[in-house]
Amino acid sequence: MPVPPGHVYGLHILAADDVWAAGATGSGAAVSHWNGTAWQQTIVDGFPRSAVSSVLAVSPTEVWAGGTAGFVGGPVGRPIPPLLVRWDGQTWSRVTVPTDYGSISSLAPTTSGALGWVAVARSQKAGPPGSYPPLVPGPDFLAWDGQSFTGHSEPAVAGEGESWALRLAPVPGTGTVWSVGRADGPEGTFAPRILRFG
């Protein structure tokens, strides 16, 4: 199959002529649409190093994409802000999420196909000015009710740290959603992690 320019990290398929791809180019985070014949690509965040890795198409006038926002300068290891954008049929706009840093790694629909859940890997929030540590844990999962987000944190697991690369999978016909990823283990190791909500 032909591929859109740049990198592709995620797909959502509604039909053979309605395919959405999340990715990145040298110009920034990009979402591409396949109409059965060709790709049409849009840069949804034009800052360097931005990318989207997950896309969820609800309808021709509602498409979501999530990943990491771009930034310029700063030290190696600087936290990166999350990026969530929404298509309304005409333009892409940025949606504010209740965390300051991390990567939106997965989007999951409700039973109706609308956006239901957003996973934020390595979620962090800025603490009060002058506080130590300067960053505190943020919500790992965001439930969307159509108007606002409710944050949820993953449970603590003895001997393990936070999860990486959270991927969501809803249970069809229910309000239950599963998450799979890997967590920091002891002495630089990793541990698989599966979580369930509902």
Q: Your description of this structure?
A:
The chain has 198 residues and is an all-beta fold. The chain has no helices and 16 strands. The chain has strands at residues 7-15, 18-25, 28-34, 39-45, 51-59, 62-68, 82-87, 92-94, 101-109, 115-126, 135-137, 141-144, 149-152, 163-170, 177-184, 190-197. Strands 9, 10, 11, 12 and 13 form a five-stranded antiparallel β-sheet that branches. The protein has a four-stranded antiparallel β-sheet with strand order 1-2-3-4, with no helix packed on it. β2 (18-25) and β3 form a beta hairpin. The chain is globular, with a radius of gyration of 17 Å.
> Which percent range fits the helix content?
under 10%
**Backbone structural class:** mainly beta
Provide a count of the helices: 0
Share of β-strand residues:
over 45%
Number of strands: 16
Let me know the average pLDDT. Answer: 92
Estimate the global geometry from the Cα principal axes.
globular
The SSE order reads EEEEEEEEEEEEEEEE
Major sheet details: 5 strands, antiparallel
**Alpha-carbon distance between the two ends:** 38 Å
Spans of at least 5 consecutive residues with low confidence = none
Radius of gyration: 17 Å
Properties at a glance:
4-stranded antiparallel beta sheet, globular
Layout of secondary structure:
Elements: E1 7-15, E2 18-25, E3 28-34, E4 39-45, E5 51-59, E6 62-68, E7 82-87, E8 92-94, E9 101-109, E10 115-126, E11 135-137, E12 141-144, E13 149-152, E14 163-170, E15 177-184, E16 190-197
Antiparallel strand pairs: 1-2, 2-3, 3-4, 5-6, 6-7, 7-8, 9-10, 10-11, 10-12, 12-13, 14-15, 15-16
